[in-house]
Amino acid sequence: MGGRIPRSGARLSVSGGVVVVSSQLERFFTSIPDRPAQVPLPDGSAVLFQIRGEGGGTWTVARRRGRLQVERGITTHPDCRLSCSARDFHALLRGELDPREGFLDGRLELEGDVGLVLRLHRLAG
């Protein structure tokens, strides 16, 4: 995995009667460094989020030298990767999708150190 995924502007789409603005995810991810107590990642670890479809994108959340960093794209070799649709990620954040059920029914794809993603459950809700 390597390279950066270019930034894109906010997009508006209507899918199943639901309006999705990609900047919602941008705001969610860029707010993570302001909430260090909710992100108990060990130093030197990184989690890659690949959100597919309209309103999606790719973000890397990492803790380096004690500081949380969130960058758009694949910026380091991740210890764990979470991949899902934008609709499922929003449902996960709203508490409407249980992570275990999402994994078991194939809506959430996890690869690597799954324990790292489970540490991030407090970001949702």
Walk me through what this model shows:
The protein is α+β, with helices and mostly antiparallel strands and 125 residues long. The longest helix has 10 residues, at 22-31. The strands form two sheets. The protein has a five-stranded mixed β-sheet. Strands 1-2 form a two-stranded antiparallel sheet. The chain has one domain (22-123): SCP2 sterol-binding domain (Nonspecific Lipid-transfer Protein, Chain A), CATH 3.30.1050.10. The chain has helices at 22-31, 86-93, 99-104, 114-118; strands at 12-15, 18-21, 46-52, 57-64, 67-72, 80-85, 109-112. The chain is 23% helix and 31% strand. The radius of gyration is 14 Å and the shape is globular.
Name some characteristics of this structure.
125 residues, alpha+beta, Nonspecific Lipid-transfer Protein, Chain A, five-stranded mixed beta sheet, two-stranded antiparallel sheet, 4 helices, 31% strand, globular
CATH superfamily: SCP2 sterol-binding domain
The second-level CATH architecture is 2-Layer Sandwich
- Number of spatially distinct domains: 1
Averaged pLDDT, please?
81
Q: Give the low-confidence spans.
A: 1-21
Q: Tell me, what is the CATH class?
A: Alpha Beta
Principal-axes geometry comes out as globular
The number of distinct helices, counting runs of at least 4 residues, comes to 4
Main sheet makeup = 5 strands, mixed
- Identify the strand order in the major beta sheet: 5-4-3-6-7
Query: How many β-strand runs?
Result: 7
- Summarize the helix and strand pattern as letters: EEHEEEEHHEH
End-to-end CA span: 30 Å
- Helix share, percent: 10-25%
Which structural class fits the helix and strand makeup?
Answer: alpha+beta
The value of Rg in angstroms is 14 Å
Q: According to CATH, what is the topology?
A: Nonspecific Lipid-transfer Protein, Chain A
Task: Quote the beta fraction.
Answer: 25-35%
